[in-house]
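Moderator note: this is an archived Q&A kept for reference. The question asked for a predicted structure of one protein chain; the sequence and the answer are reproduced below.
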Amino acid sequence: MTAFQTVTHLLSGATRTMVVGAAARLGLPDHLNHTPRTAEDIAAACGIPAPQALRLLRALADLGLCVDGHTGFTATEAGTLLRSDVDGSLRAYALLASHPTGLEPLARLDFSLRTGRAAFPEVFGREVFEHFAADPELAALYNSAMGQPTRHIANTLPELYDFTRYTSITDVGGGNGSLLICLLHRFPALRGLVFDTQAAIPEAAEVVRQAGLSDRCGTQAGDFFTEVPRGADLFVLKWILHDWDDEQAVRILANCRAALPDHGRILIVDEVLPERGNPIQPRDPGLTDIRMMVLYGGRERTRAEFEQLCDRAGLTVTTAVRRDGVSLVEAVRSS
């Protein structure tokens, strides 16, 4: 692309997000497969006028989510991930990404850049997790959306990390338990605990039950700023620390350390930003860092910044690795 095309392509990002979100809300991907279907068929299935269905399908084809063939539209592999009935579905993720709670604060990015504070409270009058607590339906969408990319992470983590040396795992801020369930299925000798707020625990308990793991996986409500339950030899923090500023992140880590046995370890699954001068990774962690700032007042961090946080919490970073878009940092008690 030319420089002009590059910039104009980037500036269409919001439209792309909303096209994908609208398709997910209408359930359109559920009606696309490898058998060609006309715009009229799709329109009837989705309950929208045929001309508008055709326009949406053309936009989805532009994004590589379907193919406009001679006899109708068919789904691509990427488009199939927006179905509600497939393993690895990203439908809830698309719904959350296109929801006003995420988009409206981004329109106030300049506020966050000037102040270093989250723009979310400026838009909605309260912190993001207070907002979710007041809206159970939105909170359920958030937990589902955070759980959906977990399958990729759970499939990659065992290639990066040896879980066989542990007997039990506590997933701190584990949401609906998606990551822990995947790990327990992969490693039958492990036991686990999903630890999260009271609002998240009922769904987590039901997901654990449906997975047939109630005998090996418990759930417990609490506040990781106050205390983390003891009993596990591995604490996992997936997409937790990047939601918080340094002071809050140190509190979480310190509470994990207090509950950690001498031989225990902490596994942080967050983006690890490249050091200055290194190329940005394909997953665009710099953009994720902006989103964390705007929504939560949090941030993505480099290995050196994780080392500083851990040192303040009485921990030592032993390793930091990245592969296939998944980053992890391991920490142990400082000697």
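Archived answer notes: The mean pLDDT is 94.
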